[in-house]
Automatic annotation (TrEMBL):
CDD domains: S26_SPase_I (cd06530)
Family: Belongs to the peptidase S26 family.
Name assigned to this protein: Signal peptidase I
Subcellular location: Cell membrane; Membrane
């Protein structure tokens, strides 16, 4: 009799444990899904506009609530040629109210020269051979670079140009200025179009890197 009671208690304890484990799993999973919706998103890099900083096919973690600062890499939304919303990855160059000026690949913000150290390799390659070796995988990109008077030009192909950023808007550029379609083409981005800051590159594993400074 005692052994039967003990056996029943053991079964009851086992069922209780299973229910507890199931509920715990549901709570944890729900927490992950909720945090995914509110705090972060995963984004895959499409195209070459952020080379060499980010390569096509890499996967990123984006924090939705981060304050946006100059030179942050961010995810923004825009409409494609079919008027469908798409996500793009770009770098913040101009903050609200800024005067952005480029003179022969030198950036000036509100009249002060600013170094874009993250472009050093590509700018050097542009001066050396107009990125012909770098773009060996694409004849189209080679032709774009060959025809460009500088690494950073505006929509009209001018190497000297100036832009004033409206209030509550941001001037976004890709790191590969020859290839990227960005604020030079579509204008500044409203604050609500920027969905978050890229903080981590997590895939492929050998490219793992924290990107938020």
């Amino acid at each position: 009799m005692a052994s039967r009671i003990a056996k029943n208690q053991k079964k009851k304890h086992s069922r209780t444990r299973q229910i507890f484990d199931t509920l715990l799993f549901i709570i944890i999973l729900g927490g992950i899904v909720l945090s995914r919706l509110i705090f972060w998103q995963a984004v895959r890099v499409e195209g070459h506009s952020m080379d060499p900083t980010l390569a096509e096919g890499q996967h990123l973690i984006v924090f939705n609530q981060n304050q946006i600062d100059r030179f942050d890499i961010v995810v923004a939304t825009e409409n494609d040629e079919n008027d469908k919303e798409k996500k793009i990855v770009k770098r913040v160059i101009g903050m609200p109210g800024d005067e952005i000026e480029f003179k022969q690949d030198t950036l000036y913000i509100n009249g002060k020269e600013v170094d874009e150290a993250y472009l050093a390799d590509y700018k050097a390659a542009f001066k050396a051979d107009k990125l012909q070796n770098t773009y060996s995988y694409s004849k189209y990109f080679q032709n774009l670079a060959q025809a460009s008077p500088a690494f950073t030009v505006n929509r009209e192909g001018q190497a000297d140009f100036k832009v004033t950023v409206p209030d509550n808007e941001y001037y976004l550029l890709g790191d590969d200025r020859i290839v990227s379609k960005d604020s030079r083409d579509v204008g500044t981005f409203k604050a609500e179009q920027i969905t978050g800051e890229v903080v981590l590159r997590f895939w492929p594993v050998n490219s793992f890197k924290l990107l938020h400074e």
